[in-house]
Amino acid sequence: MTTTNKDKLTNIFSFFNHGGDHYFKEKRMVISSTDAWGVLRKDLIDTLGIQRAKRFLLRYGWNCGKNEARMLKDLVNWESDLEWLVAGTQMHQIGGRVLSYPEHFEVDMEKGTFDVSGHWIDSYEAKQHLQHYSLHHEPICYFLIGYGGGYTSECLGKKVIFKEMHCVGKGDKQCSYVAKTVEEWGSEIEDEIINYEEQDIADELDIVYRRVERQSEVLHVGTSITKNLTSALLQGKGMDDFAKMLAEDLSMPVLIQNQYFDYIAHYFDETRPHVQQYNREKIQDFIEKQFSKHVLTETEPFEIGPDQNLLISPIIIQNDVYGYISIYREGAPFGDAETDFLERAASICAVKMLNERTAIQTEERMKGDLLEELFKGETDPDNIIKRFSYFGYNINKSQYVLTIEFPNQSLFPYLEENTQSKANNVSKELMNFFNREETYYQTTFIKLEKYRKVTVLIPNEYLQKKKIGIKQFAQHCYELLQRNDGTPPIYIGVSKLCSDVGQYSKRFKEANKSIEVAKAKNRLMNVSNSSVVHADELGHIMILLDARKPEELLEYANEFLFDLKTYDGKNSTELVRTLYYYIENECNLHKTAREMNVSISGMRYRINRIEELIQVDLSKASSKFEIQISLQTYMAFNLL
After folding, report:
1. Where is the 4-vinyl reductase 4VR domain (predicted)?
2. How far is CA 362 from CA 168, 367, 404, in A?
């Protein structure tokens, strides 16, 4: 009966107690628990990192396998080299490491070919890994892989690499492997070969020491940045101080911009060694081009030229980007450490901006309250001038009153949520426009936001600096608000020039009445259009609006229009609307018919019916004037 490899190995594996010594035949052996090996493995991973620990365990396993193969070569009288090679699987079981059995076995010792695959059952290494860590993203039986490669390579005389395909340590049901010679693996194993290169453990520890030293340096710099910037924030220092402190800690230029890409602060210490020159305008142009169409929401590195690196972090307040903080250097790209430093600085800059914004909003509310009081016209002019002067504002200078009325969501329940969101974003964009203009032209817009209306004082001095008229300015605001389709109508009313503090109440009414006229026209013409209306273009309508006895005007208008309006209500006709178009088109029958999409005969019938009901001759100039006055009075008093 032929003796099996296992029998041979078991026979030579015996214990002889000579004061605590154990022998594998005459070779002294040491037995250790798997838990102890698990702790050692954990310490290696925690100290070296899992990649370096992997290389260490692979090489250790390789040498163990190689040495045991040499030892067994001399201890056992093998019938063939193949028998010696197969004994390696038994050594796994005898050593308590794993139960190994091949599934595919294609080996030729003479030709030096090796193509084997199989399974490892109950791997001690996978179990120990899971006792200390969670599932890993790749196989983790590093010692077993190394041992298999070292043992078979010694037997075959050619380098054999084991590759674990499935592993319990990454969540698979069992561990499995594939083993081939380097030649048979080809390019498939290129990334693994480096793990088998010899490297002294002292070198590994030196690498770890340098890494710890670097991490200590990074921690020191990060702590210094946080401490210095927080201290500056608490002391009420500004962005210039922030930029200087960060630049000194990092020894590189620091640039801080607002959301409009204007520089708030920047610092560059030319006296420091190894600090490169930088082109501030080039950096500004780069950032503006990068983020004018999309918003940066995370810290990102950019290469703005050959070996010219820029790291940009957004300054975010309540999910909105309020600016950017950047650092620049030439040479090596930025890493995780610089990203961490910059994000810390961006967070503190955000707190600073939030504090300033809160103070500005408080001041804006106080100005708005004063403006509302001014529009009511019930306050002593000298008193209101003095109170505005506390904010450094001269309310007595020439200004226009511009009122914007936004749609009421409750009046438009059909709006989808994203459409309403677009409308809100558009109004925010307009406010951002005012903020940019204030910065660029060194002016101030006093705003009153109430209900669905925003009223803004537009200084004539600002318009002169900008070399633009109030009509062009209002039209630009209108275009900003109309960028998104699908929003309900938005109205802008513009007053005449206000040159005295006592005129604000009247000018405020003009701007709002201009909006009411625009809305009345929309109702009369059965359309829903946004529009800009200037009080100085309304002519005699404004005289009607300012009449001291409006009841007399209404009585006058009723003489012409009341019966016509009543008839429309009872019969669902459009005679009032037809009359408006007819008068606006200078009593041109054909033009009115085209505009209202009505036949000529149908239009003649309507005109005849109108003349019968209101008992006037529309061919007479006096009749046309009286009817025009009546229509405009109805519109002015919101009766159409």
Report:
1. 119-181
2. 62, 9, 22
The SS3 call for residue 388 is helix
Q: Which uninterrupted H or E stretch holds 324?
A: strand 320-330
602 shares a domain with 462: no
Pair (11, 157) in one structural domain: yes
Whether the CB-CB separation of 481 and 430 falls below 8 Å is answered with: yes
Asked whether residue 366 is domain-assigned, the answer is: no
- Give me the torsion for CA of 256, 258, 263, 269, rounded to 10°: -10
Domain count, the chain: 4
Between strands 254-258 and 263-267, the pairing is antiparallel
In this structure, the strands spanning 491-494 and 531-534 are parallel
Instruction: Clarify whether residues 532 and 564 are in a common domain.
Output: no
Residues 258 and 353 in one domain: yes
The per-residue pLDDT for 222 is: 74
Residue 507 lies in a domain: yes
Q: Which of 96, 115, 95 is nearest to 104 (CA)?
A: 115
Cα separation, 585 vs 575, whole angstroms: 15
Closest of 613, 549, 631, 625 to residue 586, by C-alpha: 625
* 3-state secondary structure (DSSP) of residue 485: coil
Residue with tokens 């179990």: 127
Chunk the chain into consecutive blocks of 10 residues (it has 640) and report each block's average pLDDT, rounded to whole numbers.
54 50 57 83 86 88 91 85 88 84 90 92 92 91 94 93 94 93 87 73 60 66 82 86 87 87 83 64 85 84 87 89 89 85 90 84 82 85 85 88 78 43 64 86 88 89 93 88 67 90 89 81 69 76 58 72 86 87 86 88 89 83 77 71
Tell me which residue of 467, 235, 501 sits closest to 386, measured CA to CA: 501
d(CA 83, CA 105): 13
Measure Cα distances from 221 to 216, 270, 583 in Å. Answer: 9, 21, 78
User: How far is residue 284's CA from residue 290's CA, in Å, rounded to a whole number?
Assistant: 10
Place of tokens 């690499």: 161
CATH of the domain at 9: 3.30.1380.20
Q: Residue 58: its pLDDT value, please?
A: 92
Q: How far apart are CA 587 and CA 591, in angstroms?
A: 9
Residue 551 has a pLDDT of: 64
Is the dihedral angle over the CA atoms 49, 52, 54, 58 positive or is it negative?
negative
For 457, the 3-state DSSP assignment is: strand
Residues 229 and 169 placed together within one structural domain of the fold: no
> Phi then psi for 120, rounded to 5 degrees?
-115, 125
244-247-252 Cα angle (round to 5): 145
Annotate 521-579 with DSSP letters as a single string.
HHHHHT----EEEEGGGSTHHHHHHT-S-HHHHHHHHHHHHHHHHHHHHHHT--HHHHH
571: which 2 tokens? 């019969």
Residue 147: predicted pLDDT: 94
Is residue 81 assigned to a domain?
yes
* Global confidence as pTM: 0.47
Q: Check if the beta carbon of residue 295 is closer than 8 Å to that of residue 325.
A: no
Neighbouring-strand partners of residue 406: none
The secondary element (H helix, E strand) that includes residue 364 is: helix 336-376
> Do the Cβ atoms of 557 and 630 come closer than 8 Å?
yes
Amino acid identity at 34: T
